């Protein structure tokens, strides 16, 4: 386990515990104020009976947890290190407004007095107490983390891919200039074909040792600083870096056609593109994941009778397993087992991987029907619940075909930034591919999706997918 992950995890836990404690304090204080506001309008007993009533005790146990759930959805815990204080303030204000609305309209609607001014006072008081209790603890933890970085008690272990003059100069700037973050340069990795720098500011390694170096030095960041910009070579390099499960950053002018909408992170005044983070906010990431799991569980429950009917149809149509399992490559090139209802005869690929087409004789009669309405993909909702896939995302492929796609379209490496999906823009606009070149053509839609990724775009793709399914144009 990498030390950096432990530091990030500890910091996230600190923020969570801080929010949980301050949420309890804030809600308890508000209940005291709530008693005095309501006392003038109705009989609510004495303060002790009101605050320690069964109803309020239950709320005291649940509301702080609900508040932390909203804080998680806001993306606040995703990036616990190197926080922007302005962004922290805005995120806290917004999530406090949401929590205030949930508490007021969800639990206190019966407390409405009928006097508009008093109701507004209660609403404003709730917001102020929540914010005043929560924000100071957050800013204190953030300031403490920034101080640890400034004093170099905490340092992000960084590996520089590149050994040219510019790579060493950039590394020197990172180590000497003041910043919110501190970096410990673990070494430099030679990029084949580039000229080594004259200055030696750290140990130099060969490219084939990069996985070993990341594990040995427990690397947090990889910064790719190429001397000569060759998009195909750099993209091919990135494809081999994604499985290392570290943050990968690169100069923005390296990719003229993919970095325009990818978020930049300022390192000592020099912007670097975070290749491992797609163009979507942290809150949108959490909302997307939450919706994925919720919708998948609802669909699995609702369609469970249909699952049984399809299973009987598949089993009776031809000998073999009902569920077809196949290894696919997903987020950060992690392999996973994808589930589908079997649509081909048993042993359809006994001679090796082979793409299918409409006229493929290996597809059973039931299989053709299932493919036409995309019913064969229903078991993949379990992959979504497990975290292997998303409902909307680039289509997952087998490594055998990925290696072929990479040779024709090196930019496919960027697809590894996100979880693959049951449906995608490529599947909606292009459909199934029967050869590698068609897979390459479809991949272009996935690249556009990554550059424009949003919850709104996901919704549009889902609407088009539903139309495709209903019309029976799934093949």
Keywords:
16 helices; 475 residues; alpha/beta; flat
Secondary structure tally, helices: 16
Average pLDDT confidence is 85
Gap between N and C termini, in Å? 44 Å
Radius of gyration: 27 Å
| Broad shape | flat
As residue ranges, the low-confidence spans are none
Q: Main beta sheet, described? A: 7 strands, mixed
**Can you count the beta strands?**
11
Kindly estimate the percentage of residues that lie in beta strands according to DSSP: 5-15%
Topology pattern, helix = H, strand = E = HHHHHEHEEHEHEEEHHEEHHEHEHHH
Helical coverage, percent range:
40-55%
Structural class: alpha/beta
| Strand ordering within the main sheet | 3-2-1-4-5-7-6
What does this molecule look like?
The protein is of the alpha/beta class. It is 52% helix and 11% strand. It has helices at 3-39, 47-51, 54-73, 85-107, 116-150, 165-176, 210-217, 231-241, 282-302, 304-317, 365-372, 380-386, 399-408, 425-429, 436-451, 455-471, and strands at 156-161, 183-189, 204-205, 221-224, 247-250, 264-267, 270-274, 323-329, 335-341, 390-392, 421-423. The strands form three sheets. It has a seven-stranded mixed β-sheet with strand order 3-2-1-4-5-7-6, with helices on both faces. Helix 1 packs across helix 3, helix 1 packs antiparallel against helix 5 and helix 9 (282-302) crosses helix 10. The mean pLDDT is 85.
Brief sketch in words of this structure:
The protein is an alpha/beta fold and 475 residues long.
């Amino acid at each position: 386990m990498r030390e950096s992950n432990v530091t990030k995890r500890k910091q996230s836990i600190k923020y969570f515990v801080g929010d949980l404690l301050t949420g309890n304090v804030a809600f308890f204080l508000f209940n005291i104020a709530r008693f005095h506001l309501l006392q003038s309008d109705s009989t609510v007993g004495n303060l002790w009976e009101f605050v320690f009533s069964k109803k309020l005790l239950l709320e005291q146990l649940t509301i702080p947890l609900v508040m932390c759930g909203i804080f998680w959805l806001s993306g606040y815990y995703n990036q616990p290190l190197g926080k922007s204080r302005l962004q922290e303030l805005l995120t806290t204000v917004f999530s406090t407004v949401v929590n205030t609305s949930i508490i007021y309209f969800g639990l206190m609607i019966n407390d409405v007095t009928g006097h508009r001014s008093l109701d507004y006072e209660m609403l404003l008081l709730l917001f102020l107490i929540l914010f005043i209790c929560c924000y100071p603890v957050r800013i204190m933890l953030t300031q403490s983390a920034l101080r640890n970085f400034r004093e170099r008690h905490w340092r992000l272990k960084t590996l520089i891919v590149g050994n040219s003059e510019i790579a060493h100069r950039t590394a020197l700037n990172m180590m000497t200039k003041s910043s919110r973050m501190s970096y410990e340069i673990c070494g430099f990795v030679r990029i084949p074909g580039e000229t080594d720098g004259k200055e030696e500011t750290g140990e130099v390694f060969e490219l084939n040792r990069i996985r070993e170096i990341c594990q040995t030095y427990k690397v947090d960041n990889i910064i790719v600083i190429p001397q000569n910009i060759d998009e195909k070579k750099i993209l091919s390099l990135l494809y081999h870096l994604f499985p290392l499960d570290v943050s990968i950053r690169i100069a923005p002018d390296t990719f003229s056609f993919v970095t325009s909408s990818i978020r930049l992170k300022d390192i000592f005044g020099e912007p670097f593109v975070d290749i491992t983070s797609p163009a979507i906010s942290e809150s949108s990431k959490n909302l997307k994941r939450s919706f994925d799991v919720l919708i998948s569980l609802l669909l699995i429950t609702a369609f469970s009778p249909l699952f049984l009917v399809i299973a009987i149809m598949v089993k009776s149509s031809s000998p073999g397993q009902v569920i077809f399992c196949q290894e696919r490559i997903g987020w950060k090139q992690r392999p996973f087992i994808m589930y589908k209802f079997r649509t081909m005869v048993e042993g359809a690929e006994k001679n090796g991987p082979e793409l299918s087409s409409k006229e493929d004789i290996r597809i059973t009669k039931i299989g053709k029907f299932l493919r036409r309405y995309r019913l064969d993909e229903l078991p993949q909702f379990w992959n979504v619940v497990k975290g292997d896939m998303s409902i909307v995302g680039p289509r997952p492929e087998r490594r055998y075909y990925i290696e072929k796609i990479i040779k024709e379209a090196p930019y496919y490496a960027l697809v590894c930034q996100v979880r693959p999906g049951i449906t995608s823009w490529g599947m909606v606009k292009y459909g199934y591919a029967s050869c590698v070149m068609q897979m390459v053509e479809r991949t272009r839609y996935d690249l556009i999706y990554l550059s424009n990724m949003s919850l709104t775009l996901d919704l549009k793709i889902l609407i088009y997918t539903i139309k495709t399914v209903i019309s029976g144009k799934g093949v």
